[in-house]
């Protein structure tokens, strides 16, 4: 057992002490490129350090953080090799944050036996907190959230597809088939925003190619616990440490099958 509320408090602490004071107030030199096309800020690093240290006091387990992994790529092995591990994304949607946009989030998940068993998403600007535990549902600010079924026709379905990491054939297929849906956009460029939008009914499906564990473990559990479907395109279960690519998230099984047949093949 562990204290779910204690983790929520830790994420709030990072938000109040590190992240919000830097929002729209980053100084020169506080935004760096950690790899081609990938940026990091002092807020990412300081928030991860704060969160990681506090989480170990809740459950003494390795912490697989996004920024720590950029320095030590072997860290994600803990998701498969250790009985319990934490995942931390201290600032999901960093580019939005740097550009002064409110679509960013702070996320954490607890992985036990290779499966996500608890998840947290805090959206600082929206002042929303999402929490999920396996078998206990998904909750927004203390109110249980249940995903309603998607419309039956693709013409009424709204989705998001981040094509940045798609190959040419997959991108071409998406472009050809997207007009069959009510709308298909790129999403918020923040998993910590797109998953809650799917859970809440603003979107009916979200398709990703790259599935880094700290980005997708929290939201995929929340969607499943709210009644939605989060599976690999081949229909296999998502496990944060499996190293596979592609993740199709949908409001229900029928929607998942429809989107897969049209956008994935």
TrEMBL record:
Q: Which residues make up the binding site for Mg(2+)?
A: 66, 89, 91-92, 215
PROSITE patterns to which the protein is assigned, alphabetical: IMP_1
Keyword field: Hydrolase, Magnesium, Metal-binding
Q: Which GO terms describe its biological process?
A: inositol metabolic process; signal transduction
Would I find Zinc among this entry's keywords? no
Asked if the record carries the keyword tRNA processing, the reply is: no
Needed cofactors, names only, are: Mg(2+)
An annotated Gene Ontology molecular function: inositol monophosphate 1-phosphatase activity
Q: Which Gene3D superfamilies does the protein's record reference?
A: 3.40.190.80, Fructose-1,6-Bisphosphatase, subunit A, domain 1
Q: What is this protein called?
A: Fructose-1,6-bisphosphatase/inositol monophosphatase family enzyme
Originating organism: Nocardiopsis sinuspersici
């Amino acid at each position: 057992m562990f204290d779910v509320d204690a983790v929520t408090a830790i994420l709030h602490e990072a938000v109040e002490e590190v992240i919000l004071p830097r929002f729209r107030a980053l100084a020169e030199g506080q935004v760096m490129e950690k790899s081609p096309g990938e940026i990091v800020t002092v807020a990412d690093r300081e928030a991860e350090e704060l969160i990681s240290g506090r989480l170990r006091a809740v459950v003494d387990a390795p912490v697989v953080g996004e920024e720590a992994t950029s320095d030590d790529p072997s860290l994600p092995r803990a998701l498969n090799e250790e009985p319990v591990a934490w995942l931390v994304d201290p600032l999901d949607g960093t580019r939005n944050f740097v550009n002064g946009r409110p679509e960013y989030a702070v996320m954490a998940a607890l992985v036990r036996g290779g499966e996500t068993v608890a998840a947290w998403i805090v959206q600082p600007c929206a002042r929303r907190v999402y929490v999920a535990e396996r078998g206990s549902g998904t909750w927004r600010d203390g109110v249980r959230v249940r995903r309603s079924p998607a419309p039956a026709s693709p013409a009424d379905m709204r989705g998001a597809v981040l094509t940045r990491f798609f190959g040419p054939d997959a991108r071409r297929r998406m472009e050809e088939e997207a007009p069959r849906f009510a709308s298909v956009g790129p999403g918020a460029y923040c998993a910590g925003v797109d998953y809650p939008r799917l859970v809440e009914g603003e979107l009916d499906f979200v398709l990703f190619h790259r599935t880094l564990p700290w980005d997708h473990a929290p939201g995929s559990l929340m969607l499943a616990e709210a009644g939605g479907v989060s599976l690999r395109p081949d229909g296999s279960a998502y496990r944060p440490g499996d190293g596979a690519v592609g993740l199709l998230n949908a409001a229900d099984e029928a929607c998942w099958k429809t989107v897969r047949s049209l956008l994935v093949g």
